[in-house]
Amino acid sequence: MKNFELYNPTNLVFGKGQIAKIKTLIPADSKVLMLYGGGSIKKNGLYEQTLAALEGHEVVEFAGIEANPEYQTLLKALAVIKEEKIDFLLAVGGGSVIDGTKFLSSAALYEGDSPWDILANRIRTVKGMPFGTVLTLPATGSEMNSGAVVSRKETHEKLAMGGPGLFPQFSICDPEVVRTIPQRQLANGVADAFTHVLEQYMTYPTNAHLQDRISESIMQTLVEVAPKVIADPSNYDVAANFMWCCTMALNGLIQKGVPTDWSVHMIAHEITAHYGVDHARTLAIILPSAYHHQFDKKKEKLAQYAERVWNVTEGTVEEKAKLAIEKTEQFYQSMNIKTRLRDYTEDYEGFAGKAAQSLKDHGLAKLGEHGDITPEVAKKIIEMAY
Ligand code: NZQ
Ligand code: ZN
């Protein structure tokens, strides 16, 4: 096992009726900017619940943070923060609103020329403006980690950022929010969380038995709850298990002491940047071909995963490992998620080359647990996924 430090200061407040606790979690004298997306919170009662919990606080609102939060929109929110002298941010939304808020937390205190540099130059944020979140969509784990991803349409860029200053001070996770999530977003949430676990697990054996077993148990639980939550999101117990899996999949715990991959995400971000495909679906496109390409290096862990998550008992390591990739692809498909780029666009010829160039331009030239996924290899993986 590798050496590690585990630091996670987020106060995770989980369960029914917990939104009311906001009033005790935000300092009374703060001026709060409440940030949200395209309006789902106005249809499901979360808007009223949050405002009621903020009673007594001075509150300004910023609406319209879109899926795959857009840099130009966030610049407008940044202007509001400065004009209104905001000192606390409250994100009410899914990964996009929370990530946008993390960018703003960093940008609000950034002293450089252009806040885009935080993303382009991968500047780690050590101190940001304090913020909390009310999670409305289990998927990304952003509610309990310090990473964010921001998109810029005009340049077809989608870049990640982070740093120890970007953990939410608190996150409220009330599984009752799951009730109103459309099927497509529920499937996305399961697929994203499942892939997060794989990115931190599907490398090579390192005798990290507990990390392996926590990862496997998150995946087993997701396999169990996926069809149930998609069929009936109003089942509280199922929703609660789904929500906790998504948080645990990417709150930093399972990556401690082990090698991690993340090449699937980095390559997949290029698809969203170019075509606007939902994040989770881009993962389902890239992962099977990435694992086929890296088969020899990943086969031991693939076989272990086949045995422990998919109950495969027969066959050689290679046979089990192959089946593991098939089962994963079928799992995405079972949730109505298509796993080829051509399922999403007819205009894919030449994309692999452009994506490879973009990875190179952004210094993402040595991806994967061995650092051997160069832009040329990424190009091959994308072509295999056409
Ligand atoms: O905008 P509104 O109207 O709120 O609608 C949203 C949005 O259209 C809707 N929604 C959210 N909660 C709902 C709801 N609809 C009904 N009922 C509810 N309770 O769902 C749509 C998608 O929301 P979004 O926030 O975009 O989804 P998600 O949580 O999947 O976030 C995706 C973003 O997170 C990034 C992705 O790249 C993408 O930009 N990621 C962030 C990570 C992180 N910070 O750790 C890691 C991930 O790998 C990922 O990259
Ligand atoms: Zn993801």
UniProtKB/TrEMBL annotation:
KW Glycoprotein (keyword) present: no
GO molecular function: alcohol dehydrogenase (NADP+) activity; butanol dehydrogenase (NAD+) activity; metal ion binding; methylglyoxal reductase (NADPH) (acetol producing) activity
Annotated Gene Ontology cellular component terms: cytosol
Domain Fe-containing alcohol dehydrogenase-like C-terminal per the UniProt entry, residue ranges: 188-364
The Alcohol dehydrogenase iron-type/glycerol dehydrogenase GldA domain, residue ranges: 9-175
Keywords: Oxidoreductase
InterPro entries, per database record: ADH_Fe/GldA, ADH_Fe_C, ADH_Fe_CS, BDH-like
UniProt-listed CDD domains: BDH
Family per record: Belongs to the iron-containing alcohol dehydrogenase family.
PANTHER family: ALCOHOL DEHYDROGENASE YQHD
Designated name of the protein: NADP-dependent alcohol dehydrogenase
